[in-house]
Design a protein that fits this description.
mainly alpha; 5 helices; 2 strands; elongated
């Protein structure tokens, strides 16, 4: 009870639109991708590896860098697309892209031994599963 009033008060629980939830989750996914990759630069020998023209075990070729750009461009675009796509297209785009990036996240962790990287990508996978879940349960409205 509020001491100045005789009626109890409750915190307002605002309903958040599913599009905003999806967009915010994509922002969180992207933030974790960026930090995991940034921290990876501090691993022993990683900077030297980059200076000799390698991205992890792969040569830093034009095609490899273009592929990495496309791989990261998709979640960046999903931040905006989750807000502007019509509901039906939005729902399926988030289900499909979210599921594909769960596979990417699992593949990225394969053979990894650094705890920060495993933690970061595990949380990314959980966020991606939330994206797929929210999109799957997209609220329906009567015609």
């Amino acid at each position: 009870m509020n001491p100045d009033e005789s009626t109890p008060t409750f915190l307002e629980d605002v309903k958040i639109n599913v599009k905003i939830k999806l967009s915010a989750l994509w922002v969180a996914v992207l933030g974790l991708y960026i930090y995991a990759d940034f921290f990876y630069l501090f691993l022993p020998g990683e900077m030297e590896n980059m200076m000799t023209g390698y991205m992890g075990p792969f040569p830093a070729t034009q095609m490899a860098l273009l592929s990495a750009m496309v791989l990261m461009m998709i979640p960046i675009l999903m931040i905006f697309m989750s807000l502007v796509l019509p509901a039906k297209a939005n729902r399926w785009t988030n289900i499909i892209v979210g599921t594909l990036y769960v596979v990417v996240g699992i593949g990225t962790m394969m053979g990894e031994s650094w705890a920060f990287y495993i933690l970061g990508h595990s949380v990314v996978i959980m966020l991606l599963l939330l994206i797929v879940g929210y999109a799957w349960k997209w609220p329906k409205q009567e015609a």
